[in-house]
């Protein structure tokens, strides 16, 4: 597998990642399955708070592996605090993982349930100087994970991202994406599970405090279909739908998942 071409296909997919990225076989990999019976309620886990500046949103892009919204993180503009975290973490980007049909696509699995998609909001700890430095530290990154469930009351707030899809159809396309407050994507409940894990994409650094929200947000089947119109190939290549960009479950290896709720 050439260094630059990891992906989700049989020849460059998750089973091959460790060949170039040995960390992918580490002891704290993500995603994992959350089993309610093994979760430990921890009443020391306080609420988390996001304070996001809509002006920090910059661009939306298709990198051939996901659809990503990028934020200005040059200073403490859009930050996440509280919950299991110490200090303020800066929002850097959000992206999604989804399936080829509505019955799968999330990375984390809850008591055997897979959702249609999973949204990741990636924040880093500025005490480590820069994003690259944060990737090397166990408390370097905090990701809020939000599940997308196909239902009858679609989240209108997903509209903003979905209406840009046509502008970033192929790999390498990027479009301006300004004045966007990502906190509109949060569900009503702030209940969460938390554990220590990794990025679910190479190099799979084990620097992440996961904050997985219990309540999914609803999207429509049409909204999911729109996401699947993205192509993982470039403008002048035959279209290949960008779907099933999720990593399978990784071994828990004795890690404890804590819950903020009973
Ligand atoms: Zn992700």
TrEMBL record:
Cofactor: Zn(2+)
Alpha-carbonic anhydrase domain ranges (all copies): 4-261
EC code(s) of this entry: 4.2.1.1
Catalytic activity: hydrogencarbonate + H(+) = CO2 + H2O
Domain of life: Eukaryota
Keyword entries, A-Z: Acetylation, Cytoplasm, Glutathionylation, Lyase, Metal-binding, Phosphoprotein, Zinc
GO molecular function, one term: zinc ion binding
Function field: Reversible hydration of carbon dioxide.
Name of the protein in question: Carbonic anhydrase
Lineage: Eukaryota, Metazoa, Chordata, Craniata, Vertebrata
């Amino acid at each position: 597998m050439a260094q630059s071409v990891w992906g989700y296909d049989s020849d460059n997919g998750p089973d091959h990642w460790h060949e170039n990225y040995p960390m992918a076989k580490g002891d704290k990999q993500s995603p994992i399955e959350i089993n309610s019976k093994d979760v430990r309620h921890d009443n020391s886990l306080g609420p988390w708070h996001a304070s996001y500046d809509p002006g920090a949103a910059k661009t939306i892009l298709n990198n051939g592996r996901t659809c990503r919204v990028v934020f200005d993180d040059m200073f403490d503009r859009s930050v996440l605090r509280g919950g299991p975290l110490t200090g303020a973490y800066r929002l850097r980007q959000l992206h999604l993982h989804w399936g080829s049909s509505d019955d799968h696509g999330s990375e984390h699995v809850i008591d055997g349930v897979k959702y249609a998609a999973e949204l990741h909001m990636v924040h880093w700890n500025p005490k480590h100087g820069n994003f690259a430095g944060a990737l090397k530290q166990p408390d370097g990154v905090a990701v809020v994970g939000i599940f997308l469930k196909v239902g009858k009351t679609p989240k209108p707030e997903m509209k903003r991202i979905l209406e840009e899809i046509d502008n970033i159809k192929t790999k390498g396309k990027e479009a301006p994406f300004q004045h966007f407050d990502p906190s509109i994507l949060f569900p009503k409940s702030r209940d969460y599970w938390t554990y220590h894990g990794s990025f679910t994409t190479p190099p799979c650094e084990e620097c992440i405090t996961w904050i997985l929200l219990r309540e999914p947000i609803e999207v429509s089947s049409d909204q999911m279909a729109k996401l699947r119109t993205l192509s993982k190939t470039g403008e002048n290549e035959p279209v290949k739908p960008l779907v099933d960009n999720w990593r399978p479950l990784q071994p828990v290896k004795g890690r404890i998942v804590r819950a903020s709720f009973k």
